[in-house]
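Most newcomers find our protein records easier to grasp once they have seen one. A learned vocabulary of local backbone shapes supplies the integers on the structure line. Here is such a record, shown just as it appears in the course material:
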Amino acid sequence: MRDAVIVEAVRTPVGKRKGGLSGIHPVHLSADVLTALVERTGIDPGQVDDVVWGCVSQAAEQTGDIARTAVLAAGWPETVTGVTIDRQCGSSQQSVHFAAAGLVSGQYDVVVAGGVESMSRVPMFSPAQGADPYGERFLARYDGVVPNQGIGAEMIAARWGLSRTQLDEYSLASHEKAAAAQDDGRFDAQLVPVTDPDGTTVSADEGVRRGGSVTAMASLRTAFQEDGVITAGNSSQISDGAAALLMTTSEKAAELGLTPIARVHTAVLAGDDPMLVLTAPIPATRKVLDRSGLRLDEIGAFEVNEAFAPVPLAWLNDIGADPKALNPNGGAIALGHPLGASGARLATTLLHHMRDNQLRYGLQTMCEGGGQANATIYELL
């Protein structure tokens, strides 16, 4: 039976808004990680059947099927195709799912999954440009209410009884874990340094802050409700970056002399309340565990995207996972959240962590616009 394995996973550093990666075209960020896959594996890029690429704001420099443009910018043969997909924040996790399905079904033998977002150059909501993306029927179903992720995060905090202090403490811990991972060199093997047009090289994630305190966090203004709990400090950072995974089958990997890191064990989707927006990782996790036949205590590490601090905290409350296994190297609150790249970034960080610590199973999930979530279980090989 055919399977889907990952033989390499890389990412750029995650750049701050208007930071070190902001001068780099998103096509070039994408091409850099594609080039790194070839350099690290020695594969002939002409053997890649497709590049499945996540990108959320498909406007301006990120339009025109950026996947295909990146393939050509990387110097790969014109025979290699590329397709760009949008499942909001989970776009590049969905890329992994589509790539895995293509491998298992026989449509692909070798495929790249990943994604990019340059939020400095193509701001959020650029595709809408003031237009109505919902239409009358959607609005009629939900009493004219337009979904808002920040308000959804406030609703989750209220429903799960999460205080401002709890959110701020969780966020500080994310920065502390990410700083420790940087200091220990835990990200080094997954990172692809990027050089901007001025010759400056960015080789580390830019969003990690050190020496914060709950007192300092408490001084930040709330972002969505005057009497709310969500601030810039307990939310994910607006960021730039790209990530990519080279995927194939076990049989093809052996033929090419490649050593797989892990295989895609189980991949599912779940939908939930689009007004809460951010809760679907909870049913997605339950679904992926049920379909996989694995117990919660068999999972050695969890990556749950930190869109806002209430998301992983509500997930932790309902799923009952070991808090120490959750985002062990920090999450998007510290590292940043380049929308279309984040799914592949989480996968890359998780896979390297599994290999470094010999963890047999890892689980990744993330909230997505529309009240959706992907969930993926990887098995170390």
The chain is about 35% helix and 20% strand. The first helix runs from residue 26 to 41.
